[in-house]
Design brief:
This protein is of the alpha+beta class and about 950 residues long. It contains 20 helices and 47 strands.
């Protein structure tokens, strides 16, 4: 392109900062050809040289620091930031992360050498931590939507900055919607009835977007009610509706390879042009697919345009949203961009290191303390730090490269002096029965990470035994951090019964190690135990015995256990349970047997069942993988230099409690989270102890009676009645008394972290809107505050309530549900049995179907006005006759009103209506039951009456 052309381009209207952004975007959009606009729909968008527009790419991972781009400040995992319950701190962390994002954008090359590092940040994750077995538990803030939304808003504001016109970085919320399982995540469907959808899953996204803090969202891999999230009408109907009043459109991106999944894994569409067109029309603006190969994706979209599946305006709308964002990021106004001067020196700066230490310290949660903590040098001069995490820190998939590591033992040693460190790993040799040679000519330190999954680390080099792409086994990697983890193994007993030999199996490939008798080369290529090499296991060092000796010689033992963030619970892999790895549990018990003064420190991405530890140990502490300063933070808390101020962001269940099925997303019926969990937990949501004492008093409401659209103030006096300064998280909950619906046991309404000096008291006030008492009313399709009795509660945790005040809401009582002459959606039930929620069409709508066609399913609609009804009409779809009959039974209480047989329609998306006369139901409101037999779908029903002439 010639200099004259560039000169002209720089004087075009879209370059004029005096014009409104909307006009500039429209001007630039109008100058782009269709091919240029289509090219902007891929993650990697080329530059438009004739207009002087640079190449652009979406997405820099920035969940708790800049990821995948090299050394950067690493803050605590998101679940650890959630444990701080400190919005100001979370915002400061995000500010530091976004400053480093800017530095990487200007001063560091991209990992693949294409374009520049993006200022669009794929963070935060606001998926709720419903199930603690979720492999990506570490990425979310909390199991509670209010807590998650507050911290998510803070993180977004920190990333975006405060400038009225320019963004420091552009935060994108992940992952929309109801994404909380990894196993088969691309083909599983999260069943969300309307109340769960509105009160729980959407409730984490809604406040963040409505506040204007987020600039975009990423669609999730999973399906919701049978429909892939990438073609969900909720993108437009909910996300963009909330954003509209902010004056900025949301820029929605796909997850990696998810557009392809619509055809290749989910089989939701027959071909890619059709699926891509559907995703674009549903609201996906940028396709993260085929990595740097944009030609494949753009070719599919071009075919969709040419075949009339999408219009040019569909393309324009998506491109317009991208350009709006790029203008806000300062791309077209570099001289005005207030963040353009950020230099590389901010990466891992002293200020960011100090902030990392503060964040890690505030995230530490003291779960139990019978007086052992804080440790004092005069009381415990000798400390044994024992366990796989004794002096080791780990990177997770979304952390940056640690600039340095301060482990727990090293930090304690720097302060407390006499500290011994014992990893407690067995050291073994595996000797081949074929050749007599030891595997890898090395001895290995063995660590178990649960379910018998092991890592074997060369005792001399610190390198892990690794399976290579050619299936050879070598000791090579010092860091486990790759998408495919090839460093984990199972040591299995010899099926022939020989107690002296074992088999070695690679977890990733599932194959067994064999030895070439000619050259001694070891490969993982055997498909069965019969073909596998036999290894003689020789114990060189007994890790358990070493731990017992160290504990017996110490005054206090600190046992540091937990997970490896890339093993047995990570992206693509859920945990099988919540127990500690068996060898870790055994180690803990062995140490405690010889040294009762044992503190357990759990460093993990998720909760564990610590029943034995809670019963037998004097102190239990939890931290997430807290980044580079984890050790110093924990040492400060253990030694009393810092007060433990973290509080749990999710429930820690007991080990003997059977958790609901992992794919049961109905938190209400399944009993997930503190809101609906019916038994006492081991450590409840919001729990955390301090080294000082706090007392609460004088809970006052500004009014005991409030209208349905009113508000009030709740004030409580908090006092530090202890001898040292400390922080308390004041938690305000609400609950309905004698609700007509299944209300939460209690629900977090507000919270505040307060630091007090000894003897200091402070009044803490909360503004409580009556709307915070609302539930989603399926009869009106809206949030509703029922008149009646409520309680406002102040608590230390969800199971430690300290003060309560009654509150009455006035207003009109809800009337019975009207069904005569109205279409009632089948999914708008009040309760159900054995029902699955499915898609009514590929574009929109929900329906229900029996979870097992061989068993009856039931829907309950409470308090229904059936006055004068004479006919019943159901909207059904039935793909084929199949085995057994299809039938709908309609009952008012125990009385059968009608029975109908849905006909075969030939497709699950081909709907018809079936009608029947009804018996007289009797006077007054009734509980209406629909019992479904067989394999068919029900979308809606309508009652008709002679009075209104309907149906």
């Amino acid at each position: 392109m010639g200099s004259s052309s560039l000169s002209v381009a720089h004087h075009l209207p879209f370059r004029d900062p005096a014009l409104p952004v909307g006009k500039r975007v429209d001007d630039l959009l109008g100058r782009l050809t269709l091919d240029e606009r289509l090219a902007l729909l891929h993650q990697y968008t080329p530059g438009v040289e004739r207009l002087g527009v640079a190449a652009f790419r979406t997405g820099t991972e920035a969940l708790h620091g800049v990821s995948w781009l090299g050394v950067a400040t690493v803050f605590p995992q998101a679940v650890g930031l959630g444990a701080t319950w400190d919005e100001d701190l979370v915002r400061e962390v995000a500010e530091a992360v976004s400053v480093e994002v800017r530095a990487f954008h200007y001063h560091r090359p991209t990992a693949n050498g294409i374009a520049v590092n993006s200022l669009q940040t794929w963070a935060p994750v606001v998926n709720l931590l419903r199930d603690p077995r979720w492999g990506r538990n570490e990425e979310g803030y909390s199991e509670d939507p209010t807590h998650t939304a507050r911290l998510g808003t803070a993180y977004c504001r920190g990333l975006a900055g405060d400038h009225p016109d320019f963004l420091r970085a552009a935060p994108v919320l992940k992952h929309f919607l109801a994404y909380n399982n990894e196993n088969d995540r691309c083909v599983t469907s999260s069943g969300l009835r309307p109340r769960v959808l509105q009160e729980y899953d959407l409730a984490a996204f809604r406040p963040i977007i409505a506040s204007g803090a987020a600039t975009g969202a990423m669609a999730a891999y999973n399906l919701v009610n049978g429909r892939p999230c990438h073609v969900s009408p909720l993108i437009e109907d909910e996300l963009r509706r909330w954003a509209r009043p902010t004056g900025h459109e949301l820029f929605v991106v796909s997850d990696e390879e998810a557009p392809c999944n619509l055809v290749e894994q989910e089989h939701y569409f027959d071909d890619h042009p059709t699926s891509h067109a559907a995703a674009l029309k549903a609201g996906i603006d940028s396709f993260t697919d085929h990595r740097e190969d944009s030609a494949t994706v753009i070719g599919r979209l071009r075919e969709a345009v040419e075949s009339g599946l999408i219009e040019e305006e569909d393309v324009n709308q998506a491109v317009r949203r991208q350009l709006q964002l790029r203008f806000r990021l300062g791309e077209f106004d570099p001289d005005l961009d207030p963040y353009a001067g950020i230099g590389p020196e901010v990466i891992d700066s002293p200020e960011h290191r100090a902030l990392a230490l503060r964040a890690a310290t505030e995230s530490v949660v003291l779960l139990k303390n019978d007086g052992l903590l804080p440790l004092r040098a005069d009381r415990a001069p000798r400390i044994a730090v024992i366990g796989p995490h004794a002096d080791t820190l780990y990177e997770d998939w979304y952390s940056g490269t640690l600039p340095y590591q301060v482990g727990i033992a090293s930090a304690l040693r720097a302060t407390a002096g006499d500290v011994v460190t014992v990893e407690a790993a067995d050291r073994i040799v595996l000797r081949s029965r074929t050749t007599g040679e030891p595997l890898g000519a090395a001895a290995y330190d063995v660590c178990e990470w649960g379910d018998g999954v092991l890592t074997l680390r060369d005792a001399d080099t610190g390198r892990y035994l690794t399976r290579k792409d050619d299936d050879s086994l070598v000791t090579e990697d010092t860091l486990i951090k790759s998408w495919f983890v090839n460093q984990t193994f199972l040591v299995e007993p010899d099926p022939s019964g020989d107690r002296d030999t074992v088999l070695l199996r690679n977890v990733f490939s599932g194959r067994y190690a064999v030895v070439d008798p000619d050259d001694g080369r070891v490969t993982a290529t055997a498909d069965s135990p019969r073909e596998a090499e036999r290894w003689q296991r020789e114990l060189l060092r007994d890790g358990m015995a070493e731990a017992r000796r160290a504990a017996a010689a110490a005054d206090v033992a600190v046992v540091v256990l937990g997970n490896h963030p890339l093993i047995n619970g990570r992206e693509t892999e859920d945990r099988t349970g919540i127990a500690l790895p068996a060898t870790q549990e055994a180690l803990l018990r062995e140490v405690a047997a010889v040294r009762p003064q044992t503190a357990l420190v759990v460093m993990s991405s998720y909760p564990y069942a610590l029943d034995w530890a809670d019963k037998h140990l004097p102190a239990v502490v939890w931290t997430s993988h807290g980044g580079q300063e984890t050790g110093r933070a924990l040492a400060a808390v253990l030694l009393g230099e810092a007060d433990p101020s973290g509080r749990l962001p999710q429930t820690w269940y007991r080990g003997d409690e059977e958790l609901p099925p992992r794919l049961d997303y109905d938190v209400i019926k399944a009993g997930w989270t503190y809101q609906y969990h019916r038994d006492a937990s081991l450590y409840p949501f919001g729990h955390g102890l301090s080294y000082t004492d706090f007392t609460y008093g004088d809970l006052r409401l500004s009014t005991p009676v409030v209208p349905q659209d009113g508000a009030l103030d709740a004030t409580v006096t908090l006092s530090n009645s202890g001898a040292r300064p400390g922080s308390e998280v004041v938690q305000l909950y609400v609950r309905a008394v004698d609700a007509r619906y299944e209300a939460p046991r209690l629900k977090l309404a507000d919270f505040r972290k307060v630091r007090l000096e000894p003897g200091e008291s402070r009044e803490v006030s909360f503004r409580l809107a009556a709307g915070q008492l609302a539930h989603w009313d399926v009869t009106t399709d809206a949030f509703t505050v029922d008149p009646g009795a409520y309680e406002v509660l102040v608590a230390r945790s969800a199971e430690h309530l300290v003060l309560a005040a009654p509150l009455t809401v006035t207003g009109t009582a809800p009337a019975p549900r009207v069904v005569a002459g109205r279409r009632t959606r089948a999914a708008d039930f009040d309760d159900y049995t054995a029902v699955t929620l499915v898609d009514a069409t590929r574009l929109a709508g929900d329906a229900v179907t029996p979870a097992d066609p061989a068993r009856p399913a039931a829907l309950l609609f409470r308090s229904v006005d059936l006055s004068g009804v004479t006919r019943f009409e159901a909207e059904t779809a039935r793909e084929s006759a199949g085995p057994g009959e299809a039938r709908i039974e309609v009952r008012a209480g125990d009385r059968l009103l009608a029975s109908l047989a849905p006909p075969v329609t030939g497709s699950r998306y081909t709907w018809t209506t079936v009608t029947a006369e009804t018996a007289a139901p009797g006077d007054g409101p009734h509980d209406l039951y629909l019992t479904l037999h067989g394999d068919f779908r029900l979308a809606s029903f309508t009652f008709g009456s002679a009075e209104n002439g309907t149906v």
